[in-house]
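Bug #77: duplicate submission created two jobs. Keeping one. Sequence:
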Amino acid sequence: MRKSEEYEMALVADQALGKALKKYDEMVAENDTGVQSDLMITIHDSIRNLRRKIEAFLHDKLPMERVVDEFIFEYQVLEGELEVRESELARYRKFAKKLMASYEDFITKVGGQKKVSVLNGATHLDFERKSKGKAYLFWFISFFGIFGFHRFYLGKIGTGIGWILSGGVLGLGALYDLFALSSMVDEHNNYHELKAARLKQLNSKK
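Kept job's structure:
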């Protein structure tokens, strides 16, 4: 899929999520008790998280592949919540299922069949742990970080392109990465490990 098509799909998804958030607010307003259920809190967090990720993509701060992974993750979280929260009101469950259907539609159109297959069989998101040794190797072969190969390795596509265009932000960014690269790798791995742990926890409750 071309970048322009990804951008268009991201805009459509953002509009759909905006409508879903508006519907959420309406359902909360109709709740006489004033207490939000666990499922509704999860729905709210899911929508807000995905809107932030799409906004990051639109500003070239996140690759589309990462956005699709976030949609997969939130789909699986909602799926787990529906299994656990069987006593939730029918309209809340229906809302969650409609939201999941929209997530799956986005994953299908943008991520393709390979990504959709994750929904059908995987209990957690597989991810490749990044190596500090490889990260520093990419830093070295990218002319001491100026061409940003190490950032592409960590999935930071937007800043990787920025490094190429700006010469590693005039070399200062490349120098900064030399000292920050270790923590950047840890941050990447910890982020994905926390996501996998959360999914494992949800699946254990089924």
